[in-house]
Amino acid sequence: MNIVFSRDSQVRGMDNTVADTEKYFGQFCSLLASYTRKTARLRDKADQLVKQLIDFANSENPELRATMRGFAEDLAKVQDYRQAQVERLETKVVNPLKLYGAQIKQTRAEIKKFKRVQNHEIKQLEKLEKLRQNSPWDRQMIAQAETRVQRAAMDSSRTTLQLEETVDAFQRQKLKDLQTFFSNFVTIEMVFHAKALEVYSSAFQALEKYDLERDLQDFRAKMQGVYGHYDTQLLANTNPSPSVLQSLARQGTLQVQLYRANEDPEHPHANHGRFSLRDRGLRGQSAHCVCGQGGYLMLPGHSP
C-alpha cells in the first residue's frame, strides 16, 4: 500500500502542474488578446487623427498646410507599422496560446487513464485484505487474489512510467513554448517601436523647421486684403516654400496611404482596405481557446 500512496502523491504533483499551466496560460491568452485588440483601437484613433489633420491642413496657409500634411503622412506610416504589430501579435502570440488547450487536454487524458489503473489496483488490494481477514483458510482464493493484485500492480507501474514520460515531455514543451511566445512578443514590440521612433524623429524635425513667421505674414496680408498691391517683400514671402512643393508632390501617395482615414469615424472599419481585427475574427467576437476541464483557456469576447 505504501507504493500505491507514493504513486498517488506523484500523480497529484503532475496533475497540479497541468492545472497551473491551464490556468496561467489561459490568463496569458486572455490578456494578450485584449492587448492586441486595444492596440488595434489605438491604430483606429490615430487614423481618425490623420483625417482631422488633413482637413485642418486644407484650411490653412501654404506653409502650415505643408507641415501638417507631412506630419499626417508620418503619422499614417506609424499606423502601418502598428497594423503589422497587430497582425504579428495575433499570429505569433495569441493564436498559439489559444491552441495550447489541446495539449493540456491530451495530458489530462493520460492522467485520468493512470487514475483508473490505480483505482483498479487499490480495489484488488482491498479485496485481498478482506479475503485474508474473512477466509484465512481458503488458500486457493487468496492465491488467486494475490495474482490479480500482482497484475494490477504491474499495470500501474507500467502506466506510471508512461505518465512520467508524458508529463516530462509536456513540461519541456511548455517551457520551450513559453520562451518562444514571449520572445516573439518582445521582438514584435521592439520592431514596432524602433520603426515608429525613426518616423517620429523625422516628424519632430519637420515640425521644428516650420516657419511660423512666414505663415503670420501670409495671414496678415490676407487680413488686410491687399493681395497684388501690398509690400513687395511681403508678397514674395507668400510664395510656396520648397516644403510646400514637396508636400504637394507627395499628396497622391498620401491619399493612398490614408485610404482608411476617410471612413466614417463612427464606423472606423467600414472601408478598410488593409486591415481590421473585426474582419479577422479577433475584434468584437468571442474567441475561445481549446480548453480542458477547468475552462481557463478561454478568450472573452470583450476587453477586460
From TrEMBL:
<dbReference type="InterPro" id="IPR027267">
    <property type="entry name" value="AH/BAR_dom_sf"/>
</dbReference>
<keyword id="KW-0963">Cytoplasm</keyword>
<dbReference type="InterPro" id="IPR035590">
    <property type="entry name" value="BAR_CBAR1/2"/>
</dbReference>
<dbReference type="GO" id="GO:0036064">
    <property type="term" value="C:ciliary basal body"/>
</dbReference>
<comment type="similarity">
    <text>Belongs to the CIBAR family.</text>
</comment>
<keyword id="KW-0970">Cilium biogenesis/degradation</keyword>
<protein>
    <recommendedName>
        <fullName>CBY1 interacting BAR domain containing 2</fullName>
    </recommendedName>
</protein>
<keyword id="KW-0206">Cytoskeleton</keyword>
<dbReference type="GO" id="GO:0035869">
    <property type="term" value="C:ciliary transition zone"/>
</dbReference>
<dbReference type="GO" id="GO:0005814">
    <property type="term" value="C:centriole"/>
</dbReference>
<dbReference type="InterPro" id="IPR009602">
    <property type="entry name" value="CBAR/FAM92"/>
</dbReference>
<dbReference type="Pfam" id="PF06730">
    <property type="entry name" value="FAM92"/>
</dbReference>
<keyword id="KW-0966">Cell projection</keyword>
<dbReference type="GO" id="GO:0060271">
    <property type="term" value="P:cilium assembly"/>
</dbReference>
